[in-house]
Amino acid sequence: MLNKYFISHSTADNRFIEEEIIPLLRAMNIETWYSKNDIRSATEWERSIKYGLEHSDGVILIMSHNSSKSDYVKDEVSWAIDKRPGKLLPVMISDCDPIDFHIRLPRIQYINYKEDERTARINLIGLLKSLENAQKRLFTIKGKWTGHAFQIFGNEALESPLTLEVWQIDNNSISGNLIVLHPKFGEAAFTLTGSCAFEKFFQYNYYSQQPSVIQFGAMLLELDPLGIEFKGKFVGYGAYSGKIITGDIHLKKN
Questions:
Q1: In this structure, which long-range contacts are made by residues 159-166, counting pairs with CB atoms below 8 Å and at least 24 apart in sequence?
Q2: Report field, pTM of the whole predicted structure over 0.70
């Protein structure tokens, strides 16, 4: 669950944060990491701000003329884009140019408090709730999944039993293993890494050093609304055949 947000801001905007953002987050049972004072040295930033970033699930950026001039804020935005993809929430409270914060920030839709505070507040609450729901859904994939892969091998239609086990989820990053029982080449084990995109689509990469098996490949799986079934496609390189192999995957939660 997304339950702690780092607030990236200029101290000139403290009043807005203390009167609007923090009460709203507290009402939603969301904790905040918020520094009221300027951090004066690079060493202090490393020790204090970096700690706050690393121990937060997401970042709320208060966009203003003041914060657009802050190198610390720009560093925090750069960190969030790299380390918390999809969990940077820009909130604009006065005229400023998003590109002044980061070259990629204009791609991220911001909450506009400049014109209609009530609408902005409703939009922010909705976005926070949608991110929380997405995070809950992401954690439903942890555990063991079993099913089959279906492929055409030469002129044959082959069905291979699969076991996919997700061990760890860190933000949008996923790790685990994949075991395939191929009807021609036997059992093969793969290391699995992955990520979540758009709440229900999961991209996995897998690789193995075992001879005579698919040495590496990728899967794109869609999670059903109940969170108990995966369906999707795979593509891999077959070490035995020396060819690209594609097919379908169907998995269910154990």
A1: 159/183, 162/249, 162/251, 164/192, 164/204, 164/230, 164/251, 165/192, 166/141, 166/142, 166/192, 166/194
A2: no
Could you read off the pLDDT of 87-135 as tens digits, one per residue? 999 999 999 999 999 999 999 999 999 989 999 999 999 999 888 877 7
CB 205 within 8 A of CB 224: no
Q: Give the C-alpha separation, 40 to 31, whole Å.
A: 25
Buried b (16+ CB within 10 A) or exposed e, 75-102: bbbebbbeebebbbbbbbbbebebeebb
Which tens digits make up the pLDDT trace of 63-94?
Answer: 999 999 999 899 999 999 998 888 999 999 99
* The residue count for the chain: 254
For tokens 């075991």, name the residue. Answer: 179
Domains present along the chain, CATH in parentheses: 4-139 (3.40.50.10140), 143-253 (2.40.128.120)
Ramachandran sector of residue 143 (left: φ over 0; alpha: ψ -120 to 50; beta: rest): left
Residue 140: partners with Cβ closer than 8 Å, 6 or more residues away: 223, 227, 253
